[in-house]
Sequence to fold (401 residues):
Amino acid sequence: MNKPAILGGTKVRKIPMPVRFAFGNKEQAEVLKMIKYYKAKNEDPKYSGLWEKKFCNEFNNFMGGGFTNAVASGTGAIYIAMKALELQPNSDVLISPVTCSGAFSCITEQGHTPVLVDSDKNSYNITLEQVKKRITSKTKLIQVTHAAGEPVRDIDKIVKFAKSKGILVLEDCSQAIGARIKNKLVGTFGDIAAFSTMYRKNLAANSSSGLVYTTNKRKYFKKILAYSDRGKILWNDQLDLRDPKYSLFPALNWNTDEFSCAIGLANLRRLSNTNKKRNYFLKKLVSEIINECEVCYPYNYHEGFAPFYFPIFVDQKKIKISKIRFAKALQNEGIPLGEHYGCLISTWKWARKYLKDKFVSKNALHARNQCFHLYLNENYKEKEIKDIVKAIKKVEMYFKK
Ligand SMILES: Cc1ncc(COP(=O)(O)O)c(C=O)c1O
Fold:
């Protein structure tokens, strides 16, 4: 039998997997264009500048309309979005079980209480049924994370239900930028949306950055702008906004910069293609895994995904080793993956005392414990599918009962 690399055998994938380069030639060219522009004007690149405008306008077009503000991080985008909604102090905020600690901290740092919601079975995403189970009399907001590139299947129903109860919905689209439900993009369902566009995301605008988005200009857009920059009335270009006397209220500075926005603009122009190529790869891989593998089976996949990482389940009843050991064996074959995902609120000891109650998201925990996350990007092609499936089959064969 073919000895796995983790036990000293030869690895399946001898050359590294293709890299992505979110900061590619087009991004570099756009940064140089921006630098030239400011040099010609005899100015330093400022914030709220031309490239921020271009980036936000093109993002609005990508979303099919709406209003965008580019900011310094995804966490900042969620923070600003929540501030713009102006929740009553000490509200309960429902939160998805699989999300970033930044999203969780935006709730606690604004003096609200996070209420954990469980996911659907074998999924990281919440459902209407799970939301209904966790609504409290103080719930004013539902933070819905579209995790793992998968659009939340019930998002429309969750938004309708929330509306009927006077509850707001914030979509966190950081892990699913460009994902769709019946051709409607995530981020356009709820009252407000936040996107991390840090360097690993499908849309990457430099090392750290984020976007706040809404379709409701009248209610939220000016608030978004003011909360993003010290309460300034950024929509008024007649005033000297360096003077804080014109500010509306106290607020932090979450400004991004022209370098990030130039990179983001060029990266946005290839986002549809990025997602298309990732879906092409994933669709084929999923079908190969279903047809060829005995122990591993894929996460529920459809073409509305904006693939980010991809969970693959391991049927632990069929193998002699743990899932983590199995995943490590695959890594040793040259397949980049995360063996045990950490972005699961129920596993954070430090978070317990902030949560509304002792509720544990059992479905999300179970899903996490059964799977590893395949890392992928738009440069993964047929050869990568072949090697991934070959590596899985090799490790399965060796360790199966
Ligand atoms: C779902 C989700 N929300 C929020 C964030 C926070 O974004 P950032 O790292 O840009 O602050 C991330 C990722 O990092 C994320 O994956």
In short: The longest helix spans residues 271-292. The chain has twelve helices and 13 strands. Residues 272-399 form a domain with the Aspartate Aminotransferase, domain 1 fold (CATH 3.90.1150.10).
